[in-house]
Model the fold of this input.
Amino acid sequence: MQIEVTQEHIEKGQQSNCVACPVALALRERLDSDVTLYVASDHVFMVKFPHRVNLRLSAEVQKFIAGFDNKASGLNPFEFELDIPQEYLAESATNEDTSNSNPHR
Done:
């Protein structure tokens, strides 16, 4: 699934906060409301009782998180791919992802 970190996420994000950094804010928009989310420097941990998943973040996302947490200037919006299991996604994200994958829309 494509995740978009926007300028708004960057502006509202909190440094060194695993539930309110820009990556977490972007992910939160795609996840079901009952999913607990933690973003670490190199992975994302999600829980939707009784299930849990640990997903590795790409080098690009890890670099962004390190820069954000270290108050780097000039961080820009970006997109990244993350293979989120279906049961963690909000219904709107599921519908959007399905419609985006249809080349005959």
Notes: The helical segments are 7-12, 22-28, 59-69, 91-100. The two ends are 18 Å apart (CA to CA).
